[in-house]
Amino acid sequence: MEPQEIALIEGFLLGTGFTSLFEYHGVTPDSPPAVIEERIKEKRAWAQTQQANPKYRTYALWLIKNHALVRRVMLEAPADYVATIAERDLRRKMEMLDLFLEGSMVHGQVSPKARDAIRRRAADMGLTDDEIEAYLRKRLTSVVARDDEAAATNGWDPYVV
């Protein structure tokens, strides 16, 4: 999928409250293609009846204009779209975890108790143990590097509490 297509879909979904085209159409990526096809047709028919309705006009026109994109994403290349959704969800989870991590740090350090809390939060978000460990390793390394750079620039020692 092209980045501009992803952005187009994300922009549409932002206004709907749904997280994917599959969810918007009331199907899953594992649904039979005939069911997905039927749901796409139903949404398009709905869109054609709502073009003049100010409340739904934007969504209806988007669905009509981007019908080929919706069909391609949901029927012809669903694996690419599912991978894109998974990447987006992982990125959002990591952003939320970043906020939690930043709130748990004291002088650039994370206590063992805070690490356990971060691991629990990450597990609650559905991250695997490997993803959690990779995240902690990457983030804590970048925090130490950032603090070392700041210390060198400003003349303070980030390891002195």
How would you describe what is shown here?
This protein is mainly α. Helices cover 76% and strands 0% of the residues. It has helices at 3-16, 21-25, 33-50, 57-65, 67-76, 78-104, 112-124, 129-154. Helix 3 (33-50) runs antiparallel to helix 5 (67-76). The longest helix is centred in the middle third of the chain and has 27 residues, at 78-104. It is elongated. The N and C termini lie far apart (49 Å). The relative contact order is 0.08. Residues 157-161 have low confidence and may be disordered.
Helix % is over 70%
Measured between the Cα atoms of the first and last residue, the distance is: 49 Å
**How many strands, which pairing sense, and closed or not: the largest β-sheet?**
none
Order of helix and strand elements from N to C terminus: HHHHHHHH
Radius of gyration from the CA trace?
22 Å
- In round numbers, the mean pLDDT is 85
Shape: elongated
Assess the beta-strand content as a share of residues.
under 5%
**Uncertain ranges:** 157-161
Tally of individual helices: 8
Structural class: mainly alpha
| Record field, number of beta strands | 0
Brief characterization of the structure:
By secondary structure, the protein is an all-alpha fold.
Task: Furnish the topology, listing elements before pairings.
Elements (H helix, E strand, L loop, with lengths): L2 H14 L4 H5 L7 H18 L6 H9 L1 H10 L1 H27 L7 H13 L4 H26 L7
Describe this protein with a few key phrases:
elongated, 0% strand, 161 residues, 76% helix, disordered C terminus, mainly alpha
